[in-house]
Amino acid sequence: MKLPFLSQDNLVVGVDIGSHAVKICQLKRTDNAYSVVALGSAALPEGAVDDGTLNDAEAVATAITGLFNNLKIKNKKVGFSISGYSVIVKKVNLAVMEEKRLEEHILAEAEQYIPFDIEDVYLDYQDLKTNTDKNDRTDVMLVAAKKEIVDEYLEMLKGINLTPVIVDVDGFALENTYEYSYPDIDNVALVDIGASKMNINILSGGISAVARDIVVGSRQLTEQLQGAFDLEYEEAEALKLGLVPAGDKQPQIEKIFATTCTQWVLEIKKAIDLYHSNNPDASLNKLVLSGGGSKVAGFADFLAKETALHVEIFNPFIKMRASDKKIDPDYLKNIGPEMAIATGIAIRPSII
After folding, report:
1. pLDDT at 350
2. pLDDT value at 266 more than 90
3. Which of 23, 99, 270, 307 has the fewest Cβ atoms nearer than 10 Å?
4. 83-104 pLDDT, tens per residue?
5. How many angstroms separate the Cα of 183 from the Cα of each of 186, 254, 291?
6. CB within 8 A of 331, min separation 6: which ones?
7. What value, to the nearest 5°, has the Cα angle with vertex 40 and ends 9 and 159?
8. pLDDT digits over 148-189, tens only?
9. What φ, ψ does residue 106 adopt, rounded to 5°?
């Protein structure tokens, strides 16, 4: 089994399994556009998923089953994405070869690029076709994922009578959604901040130039607010998102945010610096935030100031249709940033 980059035919249901929640998105294709059929999110018990590892398969299965039932989704073909320590994404520069020879070369030489035993991983690749008339070398994106981790997800999904047909990577799912929404933007930094990880995918000319996962996330802020003010989780979340007034807590909140959000910004700036060092003549147009962490009160403005880039919150449904009678427009707009990865999977056609 591969981790397919390209496929064709019917759409799958996108399932994004994070450390905090499961997000599901179902789309349908009409002419050249997509319509949102169903979407939803269900919280997971703490520790059920950690750094991409499925620790409590039963809890995750229960959450997914509940969403499918509540949303009345009949399509059993699903796609899911993975991230974390068990996934390696690496770009290598190779001589241009015919497809068959390229595959043979990668299989023979993969161990020099991938820090896992080649027998223990699923391997896939895509020729980015960056060669020119003056340069007969091309960039190839390699993806390796530990079989043990992927197989646990496959077994869990099959155990609730779903048919997993696509395995994606968080960063590429995010890229997929963005390119559909903004096909004309060439150089952009995509940053998805989840509960326990940050995914960065910087595109240049529509091609991934820098891709990395970082183990930091918005749960850090929630836990720090809980500890500082003796709050329940939901109360701390509301305070983090600016949904309740801070009052006399404001000075301490600002200190907490300054420390943690500065750490996030440093990681983002490292990726941007790496991009600029390799692409000195292709300046970034903007930075696009998604994930639950994108909603942290004041973070987008802070990031814009620190990076000197235009920063916007991503709405993956901006070019999609949705029935106001079935899906509340305010809910769709509010949950949009958290659904970016699930939507990127849902755009993908089934290969079966």
Report:
1. 62
2. yes
3. 99
4. 888 888 888 889 998 989 999 9
5. 8, 37, 21
6. none
7. 65
8. 999 999 999 999 999 999 999 998 899 999 998 888 777 999
9. -65, -45
Which tokens is 130 given? 């960056």
Distances (CA, A) of 198 to 84, 112, 215, 220: 10, 27, 6, 12
Q: Where does the chain have alpha helices with state H?
A: 57-70, 99-109, 147-159, 170-181, 219-229, 233-240, 250-278, 299-307, 329-335, 340-346
Residue 7: pLDDT band (50, 70, 90) is: very low
Asked if 71 and 38 count as a contact pair (C-beta separation under 8 A), the reply is yes
| pLDDT interval class at 80 (50, 70, 90) | very high
- Looking at the chain, the whole-number percentage of residues with pLDDT higher than 70 is 97
DSSP 8-state symbol, 324:
T
Question: In the numeric block, which tokens belong to residue 90?
Answer: 């690496």
